Amino acid sequence: MTLRRVIAFGATSAMCLGAGGSALAQAMPVTATYSCERGVEVPVSYTTPEQGDATAVLYVENRMITLVQSRAASGARYEWPSDGSGYVWWNKGNAATLIWHDAVADNDTTIYAECRTR
Question: Which SUPFAM superfamilies match (predicted)?
């Protein structure tokens, strides 16, 4: 991914996150790029507003995905904001894992397990 696309991703995700309300608009996103197995790069923008849920916006599999922070025993866990199937992004320190949660089968499939910030 080129630097121009990463900058555009950060600016776009900041605008998308800022459109939700004044408290969210005041939150400054933190952007990181994770290098995963098979040479895959996953840029992520994290936003923690004064009010409301913290979010992670990922650009993965050619689409932008917004996940909402949920409870985690360790690290930070971000999930699709529903009770159904969806992506889960779990990070701790400079490591992260991308998972697909299948609500019908009640199981998880790891998509990328070896993601690290550069």
Answer: YdhA-like
**Domain-wise residue ranges, the chain:** 3-117
Label residues 70-95 b or e (16+ Cβ within 10 Å = b): eeeeeebbbbbeeeeebbbbbbeeee
The set of residues, in sequence order, having a beta carbon less than 8 Å from that of 74 and lying 6+ positions away, is 92
Contact at 8 Å (CB) between 59 and 42?
A: yes
Residue 69 structure tokens: 């922070």
**Per-residue pLDDT in tens (0 to 9) along the chain, 118 residues:** 554 444 445 545 545 544 554 544 556 899 999 999 999 999 999 999 888 899 999 999 899 999 999 887 788 899 987 778 999 999 999 999 999 999 999 999 999 999 999 7
Report CA-CA distances (Å) from 40 to 1, 22, 36, 58: 9, 34, 5, 13
